[in-house]
Design goal:
Order of helices and strands: HEEEEEEEE
Radius of gyration: 26 Å
CATH topology: Porin
Strand order of the largest sheet: 1-2-3-4-5-6-7-8
CATH architecture: Beta Barrel
Strand content: over 45%
Number of domains: 1
CATH class: Mainly Beta
Number of strands: 8
């Protein structure tokens, strides 16, 4: 009879402990990525928001994220004429499927791939030329280029996340996006996530 009581108490304790584990499959993430753009001097901060859902025993994660980058760089004057700054802006959207290699409740090491669509709005300085006349310098011609285009492509990502609380986590990640005409952008970032 004593064994039955111990067995019953053990089963009730196990059931109550299991009932306290929260199964939060959705998460929202806010982060910042140091992102390279198409020009060597264009490295800026990309502010990112992500909504994700975990499934298949938390081994797979499907994520949709949006981001924004703005970067302004100065140019050298040409014959004491300021050509104005370069301004680059991106509105980004990414969809990614991740696989978690660590079956651990607090740690995740994910590798993923997906599709990217980035809207590019650039106003950049291309060059300058002196306009000469028989009497001397007539003026300076500044050549600027404006680009408004949608660039699509694929990306790969690896990230490590640590849950310091059952609902809160921090992560670091590395991403590479091949955006066809816009070239390859690399991103190194960190963020904080909340599970619900």
């Amino acid at each position: 009879m004593t064994r039955c009581y111990f067995l019953l108490v053990g089963l009730l304790m196990t059931a109550s402990l299991q009932a306290q584990v929260l199964q939060n499959r959705n998460s929202i993430r806010l982060g910042v990525d140091l992102t390279s753009l198409d020009a060597p001097d264009a490295v800026g901060l990309r502010y990112v928001g992500r909504l994700a859902h975990q499934f298949r025993n938390d081994r797979f994660l499907v994520a949709a994220e949006g981001g924004y980058i703005t970067k302004t760089t100065l140019n050298q004057p040409f014959n004491e004429v300021d050509p104005g700054p370069n301004h680059r802006e991106r509105f980004t959207a990414d969809a990614t499927v991740f696989f978690d290699f660590l079956p651990h409740p607090r740690h995740a090491l994910r590798l993923g791939a997906g599709l990217s669509a980035w809207y590019r709005r650039d106003d950049t300085y291309r060059g300058a030329a002196a306009l000469l006349a028989p009497t001397g310098l007539q003026g300076i011609a500044i050549d600027r280029e404006e680009r408004h285009e949608l660039n699509t492509g694929g990306h790969v990502a690896v990230e490590y996340e640590w849950l310091f609380d059952p609902r809160w986590g921090v992560d670091v990640r590395l991403r590479l996006a091949n955006l066809n005409q816009a070239g390859i952008s690399s991103m190194l970032g960190t963020g904080i996530s909340y599970r619900f």
